Amino acid sequence: MDDTDGKILDSEKGLSLVDNDGELYRLLLDTFLSDAKFDPESFGKLVSAGNRDGAASYIHALKGAGRQIGAERLAAAGQRLEDVLRGKAGGNVAALAGKVLTEYELASEAVRNFRL
């Protein structure tokens, strides 16, 4: 899937992942906002230090948090960047990190505006 495919926040998918438990889904959304942060400066330091494994793990956690709530575009952008960091694909890390940041910001806004 291309990172522009899919929904910013597919709440139906997210809810289905928790057996339509609205209370649990709301908790996951709140946890996403409080714990799943993408800090370009922290990420950049990992990359600049040559710590591609650390950078990949950082993105992996963010990607997983996004996937868990149905943030499909964030998950796709994160997967693409993680693949590059792990040497599974070619690509421009800075450009892909910019895409992850954009999708993270869009997903965060969608989560803040979500009403169950």
UniProtKB/TrEMBL annotation:
User: Can you tell which superkingdom this protein's organism belongs to?
Assistant: Bacteria
Where in the sequence is Phosphohistidine found? H60
Record keywords, A-Z: Phosphoprotein
Q: Where is the HPt domain?
A: 21-114
GO BP term (any one) = phosphorelay signal transduction system
Instruction: Return the PROSITE patterns for the record.
Output: HPT
Supply the InterPro entries for this chain. HPT_dom_sf, Sig_transdc_His_kin_Hpt_dom
Q: Which Pfam families match?
A: Hpt
- One of the record's GO molecular function terms: protein kinase activity
| Protein name from the UniProt record | Hpt domain protein
Say which species the protein is native to: Treponema saccharophilum DSM 2985
Upper lineage is: Bacteria, Pseudomonadati, Spirochaetota, Spirochaetia, Spirochaetales
